[in-house]
């Protein structure tokens, strides 16, 4: 997958169509200063924009592999365009995440993309562990890398809410003991 080409095409179309989005997932980690290999691009998108996103993806040659109320997955027959996944934001917490997304420069400062804040990426990683225990090792590594890199700027009370929401209070306490400088 040519990540830069795909992002350029998507971000141009998102801007033209006023799509409310934020980069998330493994690729977003790189934008947050924590590079990690990945094979796709993941976005959080306002669910009200998904009909327009679907048209954008079809115009770019993608086929919708899966769609539900919560997620959409698109794949291109061309390897260069790969797979793009969308998590639909419609509940208050995810809509708030979209609002506080921050613009980051990528690809030698040539491309500006909205990216979820580190706390919100961590929140989704905690949810992923809760939903699928087989993801635990990779997601815990991502969480720890984000916390290490951003520890001084993190909203620790927001992180505590995310961990508590999924019953991972002990996990939060361990990260707080290890990385919070009080």
Task: List descriptors.
182 residues, two-stranded antiparallel sheet, 8 helices, Beta Polymerase, domain 2
Care to describe what's here?
This protein is of the alpha+beta class and 182 residues long. Helix content is 49%, strand content 21%. The protein folds into 2 domains: 3-116, Beta Polymerase, domain 2 (2-Layer Sandwich), CATH 3.30.460; 119-179. The protein has helices at residues 3-16, 25-31, 50-59, 92-99, 118-131, 136-150, 156-165, 169-179; strands at 21-24, 40-46, 63-67, 71-75, 83-89, 102-106, 111-115. Helix 5 (118-131) runs parallel beside helix 7 and helix 7 runs antiparallel to helix 8. The longest helix has 15 residues, at 136-150. It is globular and about 50 Å long. The termini are far apart. The mean pLDDT is 94.
């Amino acid at each position: 997958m040519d990540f830069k080409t795909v992002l350029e095409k998507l971000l141009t179309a998102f801007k033209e169509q006023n799509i409310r989005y934020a980069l998330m997932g493994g690729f977003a980690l790189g934008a947050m200063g924590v590079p990690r290999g990945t094979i796709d691009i993941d976005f959080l998108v306002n669910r009200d924009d998904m009909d327009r996103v679907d048209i954008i993806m079809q115009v770019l040659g993608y086929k919708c592999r899966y769609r539900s109320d919560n997620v959409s997955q698109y794949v291109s027959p061309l390897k260069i365009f790969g797979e793009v996944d969308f998590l639909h934001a419609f509940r208050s917490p995810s809509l708030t995440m979209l609002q506080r997304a921050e613009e980051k420069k990528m690809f030698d400062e040539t491309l500006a993309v909205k990216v979820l804040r580190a706390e919100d990426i961590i929140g989704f990683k905690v949810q992923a562990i809760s939903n699928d225990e087989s993801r635990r090792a990779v997601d815990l590594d991502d969480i720890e890398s984000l916390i290490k890199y951003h520890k001084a700027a993190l909203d620790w009370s927001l992180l505590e809410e995310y961990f508590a929401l999924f019953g991972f209070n002990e996990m939060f306490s361990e990260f707080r003991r290890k990385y919070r400088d009080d």
